[in-house]
Amino acid sequence: MTGFFLSQIEGLDPLTSGEVLVAQNVFFALIALVMILAALRMVTTENIVHAALYLVIVLAGAAGMFILLGAEFVAVTQILVYIGAIIVLFLFGIMLTKGSFGTEEGEFRERNQMAVLVGVLIVAVTSGSFIDSFRDAELNREAPSTTAEIGDTIFGQFIIPFEAISVLLLAALIGSVVIARRDL
Amino acid sequence: MTIFNLAIELAYWQQTIIRSVLGLVAVLLPAGTLVYLYLFKMMSFMQSRLGPMEAGPYGSLQLLAEVGKFLQKEDLFPRTADRVVFKAAPFVVLASTFLLVLVLPAGPDAWFINIDTGVFFALAVSSISVIGILMAGWGSSSKYSLIGGLRAAGQLVAYELPLVLALMGVVIQAGTLNVQEIVLAQANGEIFGWGGIGNPFLITQFLGFMIFLVAVQAELTQPPFDMPVAESEIVTGYLTEYTGMRFLLFFIGEFATAGIFSALAATFFLGGWYIPGLDPTDNLFNLIGPLVLVGKMLLVSFLIFWFRFTYPRFREDQLQQLAWKVLVPLSLVNIVATGVLKVVF
Prior knowledge:
The complex is a heterodimer. Chain A is mainly alpha-helical.
């Protein structure tokens, strides 16, 4: 069942069919709208737990986008790694260290200008590099990559970078334990 | 793409409606069955009492009475609660349950979604419930809830690892992440050339099955792993402030997840909807497959509830040690052994 999600959406290719209101575009617009609103609320909310929960919506939207593009494996990885692990870690950290419930006003006000600057820079650099490198490239809509292909690529072509990343992660893990436990 | 091999071609929206209704049934029916059969009756018999007997013959309508009772209760909020987070929490937990049921195949053509990443998808969506539990613990703005929520999250994160690793043995042996193909691999398998009963992975992956069951028990925060809701210390943990309908949602979520995890264990280790003696492509399986799956699910969940009713509670440090120092190393050994044997044979 290659690309199951993609095949579910009729009038598949919005580029060649010339229609705007195909299901894929409608869902793209809906998800994008929700993601933008949630992202705006995430940076404007005064409540840090709410900010983390808005981030969940943004990340879930990104997973939805991957499904629309037929990349199931990436979508599921997005859910498992970002929502299931990283956000849980965020919430865990906030709840263990924060003294009180509810909002803390003015907590973020001081660093506002720096945050805006960093945000604008990140958008400029990433969008610039993406547009530059994928200028004429088109997504291969006929053959969405299957899980087996991804596995073959990672453990064939990219085996050395993969192993290097594993070692790097292990080093980070040991380093964090050493920093956290000063008695070692 | 039809649910049962019907002669009529159904439109996409008709299929979607049928899938939605069947999804609801697949979540609520196991939950109700498990509560009545095991929580009401089996637990009572184990404790030498009869259990509910008044509502309906043999107390069979007790469930309806309970639901009616919960629906009548007032919808209470703690004064300082974070209302939106408090309200949304049970739905996040239920959403995880509903997504989990999607990967279960109940026959050669009877499935909700049949994706390449099936096992991976199941493990990913089961981890969403942690967020719901943390939301409940924090949104209640009560210290019992917060401690319970943190304990639950710590426990769920710790036992997710053995849960994932225990299934890797099955995935290696079947050679696929697709749940349907894992069932077929067991149906078409052979034990040293004898294909009489297929090759249920329970035999070769017995260690994985045991690790999976223990991890499931912990994921459900059921005794002996019920530290997050330990009533003698922290009332009922993250559920403390919930009443009426919202408590009922958490309750349904817990038992539905117990049912679905049992069905997953039955699918991965006991051959799922397949029973020996028939051809796995037989159209008959679209009809009897769901019943076979429910039967195997009841068998596995019997084990889960048996443990629940008979063992005392773990201490918090014992609980974490069991996960990190026993189950994770054991499942890693299992993966290495399975990998080596897969290459050798």
